[in-house]
Amino acid sequence: MRKTLFALAASTAVLFSAGALAQEKTKACFIYVGPIGDFGWSYQHDQGRLEVEEALGDAVETSYLESVPEGADAERALERLALSGCDIIFTTSFGYMDATNKVAAKFPDIKFEHATGYKREHANVATYNSKFHEGRYVQGVIAASLSKAGVAGYIASFPIPEVVMGINAFVLGAQSVNPDFKVKVVWANTWFDPGKEADAAKALIDQGVDIITQHTDSTGPMQVASERGIKAFGQASDMIKFGPETQLTSIVDDWGPYYVERVKAVHEGTWEQVDVWAGMKEGHVVMAPYTNMPDDVKKLAEETEAKIKSGEFDPFTGPIKKQDGTEWLAEGEVADPGVLLGLNFYVEGVDDKLPQ
Amino acid sequence: MFEDILITIATAATPLLIAAIGELVVERSGVLNLGVEGMMIMGAVTGFGVAWTTGSPWLGVFAAIAVGILFSLLFGFLTLTLVTNQVATGLALTLLGLGLSGMIGENFVGLPGVKLTAIYIPVLTDIPYVGRLFFGQDPLFYVSVALVAAVSYFLFYSKAGLTLRSVGDNHGSAHALGIKVIAIRYLAVMFGGACAGLAGAYLSLVYVPQWVENMSAGRGWIALALVVFASWRPWRVLTGAYLFGAVSIGQLHAQALGIGVPSQLLSSLPYLATVVVLVLISRNKRLTLVNTPASLGQPFVPDR
């Protein structure tokens, strides 16, 4: 242990004192909440890791820990990674937030990057996130254009700002087409349980929704939608193979470019604390091809996407009312990013009570 | 719609039921195998892999059963022949299964699976409201119910079943009577493995026809709890599995209806229900004692 620590101290010392002279390999480590084979959230992060290896070649080595539960376990796993000689550690789930900051305090020479969180308690902690809600808005537009029932089912994981933001953006997108559109929300209280997610999809379909969207990580709901002959949206990765005639589009998380940039910065000694929140414009959020819909809906979806991409339109632009009918954003007002990242209320039109 | 809900409940309950009925026989013989989750996930990956490669879901089912048996034999060899600690070995089996299945299944991730299709009997399946529920489900649903009936008959109405229970209740006496304790326990463990493998195949071929790591998501542990919940009685395992299924599906419907009860509370309902029933059952001490295999989890070394 002492040897590793020494080696670690030495290598980081070389890296930072000598700056550009650093010729040592940079070790980038990743910690995932699910298995890399979930074909969703963790899978996409791992694709990003592979991109780092490909882009930086011999300059880096990477390692990862998968299926690490959020909470106390995460802290131990992070310490283990820190002691194994990582120079930069990406913690890729919201629930790792406190563990990341706690461990970062003990290892000031290691850079920590926490995905989807907002706490940067130490100089060596950066946060990064993607504006998935931009994609959700486009999905809402498509859902309202296609749904005959006028109600969509939303399978959600945990009531964290990230997820609430997604639900709100979906509803706003849908209401831009059909002001009376409703969304039924079911909380699975898990990120990953194909069986339970499938059950949730069945329950929603039995209650009359004809479009399913999800903020959980497996392809279970897509398969159920396909069996029952309704349409659905994929999550995190392109799930078209699981519903060739079902998937309308999917929000694809592309973490690669960011990971490459950040690991490179560590290697060159130019890493700085940041708070990145990038979306469609920067290429972090990509929509899978629009399929299984008529041309006019496809055109509308593409136009919406283009408007968001160019920065001409933000999904959270007023007038928007909260669920209880009070005003949130006035005409033309754009939501403050800080408020969004801590979002804990629904907008009008969500048929659910937000768990607190 | 009501029929659809009942079928959804049956789908949620069946894998639990199959795995639990297997473990019930294992525990009745006096062996505690905590490796159900591991054998289940191995069954799931094998079932998926074989079905996908050959295109035949039935081959997948049989392969899953075979792998379940193989895995349980490993457990049997360690705990029965080498007399290792059953709890530790079972846990190790679960960890091994979860890891190994992830490795084997690496190439199967992201492939749409082959589904074991539901049966269809002309006329009967088309009966409104109940046709599909009774005559139009997947074949393994019927297997699961048949298994419960068969195990119940075997344990309480056959000589072999009596022998097995005697081994589980007092292996010393059974041995003195000339019963081959170890051999019987091997058979019981293998039956448990076969059932766990089958339950795994159900997950990856019927429930959600796909393979993803860790897709059993703790169902093996619930099956283990169900055995205790049922106080080692086969038909109570069926009741327990369906109760659990009904509450877990019911809470999703309650949420979709938007009744305004916190979802965290609803999600914990199946587990709360289990705890409540366990408490009610354990109030009757005599009944519990009569049904609990007295030698459960105790190692047996014959004094030659």
Secondary structure elements and their pairing?
The complex is a heterodimer of chains A (356) and B (304).
Chain A: H1 2-18, E1 26-31, H2 41-56, E2 60-65, H3 72-83, E3 88-91, H4 97-106, E4 111-115, E5 125-130, H5 132-146, E6 151-156, H6 161-175, E7 182-187, H7 194-206, E8 211-214, H8 220-228, E9 231-236, E10 247-253, H9 256-268, E11 275-278, E12 285-287, H10 295-309, E13 320-321, E14 327-329, H11 337-340, E15 350-351
Parallel strand pairs in A: 1-2, 1-3, 3-4, 4-5, 5-11, 6-7, 6-8, 7-15, 8-9, 9-10
Antiparallel strand pairs in A: 10-12, 13-14
Helix pairs in contact in A: 2-9, 3-4, 5-6, 5-10, 7-8
Chain B: H1 2-28, H2 36-54, H3 57-81, H4 86-104, H5 131-135, H6 139-157, H7 159-169, H8 171-176, H9 181-207, H10 219-229, H11 234-257, H12 263-283, H13 285-291
Description:
The complex is a heterodimer of chains A (356) and B (304). With 356 residues, chain A is α/β, with parallel strands linked by helices. Chain A has 11 helices and 15 strands. A 7-stranded mixed sheet of chain A has the order 12-10-9-8-6-7-15, with helices on both faces. In chain A, strands 2-1-3-4-5-11 form a 6-stranded parallel sheet, sandwiched between helices. A two-stranded antiparallel ribbon of chain A has the order 13-14. In chain A, strand 13 and strand 14 form a beta hairpin. In chain A, helix 5 runs antiparallel to helix 10 and helix 7 packs parallel to helix 8. The longest helix of chain A has 17 residues. Chain A is globular. In chain A, 54% of the residues are buried. The mean pLDDT of chain B is 91. Chain B is globular. By secondary structure, chain B is mostly helical. In chain B, 73% of the residues lie in helices and 0% in strands. The chains are: A alpha/beta (356), B mainly alpha (304).
